Amino acid sequence: MKYYTEKESVAEYIKMAKDVDSGKLIMKLNDFLPKNSTLLEIGSGPGTDFRLLKKVYKVIGSDYSSEFLNHLVSNNENDEFLNLDAVTLTTNKNFDGIYSNKVLQHLTDEELKKSIFRQAEILNLNGIICHSFWKGEGEEEFKGMFVNYQSAESLRILFEKNFEILLLEEYMEFDEGDSLVLIGKKK
Q1: C-alpha–C-alpha distance, residues 89 and 118, integer Å
Q2: Cα–Cα distance between 72 and 74 in angstroms, integer?
């Protein structure tokens, strides 16, 4: 995705996302994943969620964009970040939990299926996932970013083979019911 590879668009995204508060989303995760658990954040981007997550968990951040990784490392010098593709998640590390906020929406359904399978592989026994998505149908290009909208039913179908769904509900990021959060436990 070209948008996340260019310095100007990454700076634009950081500015655009600076006021987004994911505290309520992370509080939902706290109900299922114990404090001090190891957690991988897929797509740490500007690092806003990463900083909230590390107050509770032992977090390793990640991003596929070298521009975001440079930003993350320079603003979080004592933390660990991996250069990871959200589909392949090529790492030999295992985690108690995996978190992403509006990251997996940039994958096609086929790529998402591969990512879900790989997430199950790198999670410890009874591992927990927490992912958010834009709610809707279809797909579009938005500012050079591919967006694959999901419904509660489409997420259930995609995830239920590898995960017991513990929570799947709508929430509001900008407009009432514009987003979905899914929390699941590795089968």
Answers
A1: 7
A2: 6
For the record, the structure tokens of 164 come out as 């017991």
Residues 6+ apart with CB under 8 A from 122: 40, 89, 91, 93, 94, 95, 98
Kindly report the CATH number assigned to the domain that includes residue 47.
Answer: 3.40.50.150
Residue type, 90: T
The model carries a pTM of 0.92
Q: How many CA atoms lie within 13 A of 1 on its CB side?
A: 26
**pLDDT by residue (tens digit) across 120-174?**
999 999 999 999 999 999 999 987 789 999 999 999 999 999 999 999 999 998 8
How many domains in the chain? 1
d(CA 148, CA 143): 14
